[in-house]
Amino acid sequence: MGRTVYVNGEFLDESEARISIFDRGFLFADGVYEVSSILRGGLVDNDAHLRRLGRSLRELSMPAPASAAEINAIQRELVSRNRVEEGALYLQVTRGAADREFSYPRDTKPSLVMFTQARSLVDSPAAAKGISVVTLPDIRWKRRDIKTIGLLPASMAKEAAMAQGADDAWMVEDDCISEGSSNNAYIVSPDGEILTRHLGSEILAGITRAAILRLSRETGIPVIERPFTVEEARHANEAFATSATTFVYPVVRIDGRSIGDGTPGPVTKRLRALYIEMALEQVGSAGSGSNP
Ligand code: PDD
């Protein structure tokens, strides 16, 4: 017996899960996804993830496979069945199976699959030490605000970064950093301001980003949402990246050059601590699979 996964109405052993070869996710990357973190058996900021899922679906005129409340109930059931205390829940909706045709098929039932991945999030060597990134041209499509499963450019970037001995890639367009391969990117300027690209079709509106910007402002750390250049990043006091599965990762090297003194900076460490505190408060200590 492996993990229990969810496929179109059924909870199954992962070895039993089946999706059609005609599924448009498989043929066209015609699908969207969400990754929510799990802490103490509860889902962090899941309502925001489901709102973003709804937006991604609407942007692609893809019917929702179920209501947000129904999806939330399935997610919680899956976390509970797998007894995941800490990790991530991956959820994917595709337009469903239809004979191969570029235009959207009519009356196709969307497909909904989910699985969990248990792993430690709070206790993280990468968070303690910081990560290194290299800058690479952003070759992704122009609707990065939609969280689609078309992730090959991101995968290629991560692979290229690792081949250069780095941990991740920061994507560059018009001399500015858009975001990381699977995270949002920030720097702390010499003036102590947090800079991160403003929302738009160039980046994903990260759920962790929204929380981090809120926490920064509440704490009195100034935030400026604008594009920042590679040059600005090289001379920043600190740099960091955020996502649901990494929370806040310090970025201590960019293109082989140390940022600040080459160790995680105080603003980054504070924001990671504040985020984890907020997330733990949100999930409470309600136990496996439940939210407050
Ligand atoms: N990635 N930007 C990109 C391109 C992403 O893929 C992600 C998340 C983010 C951060 O968004 P959020 O804070 O909502 O996780 C930004 C997820 C974790 C993934 O693909 O696994």
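^ N-(5'-phosphopyridoxyl)-D-alanine complex. Confidence is low (pLDDT under 50) at residues 288-292. Residues 35, 179, 182-184, 204, 206-209, 242-245 surround N-(5'-phosphopyridoxyl)-D-alanine (CB under 6 Å).
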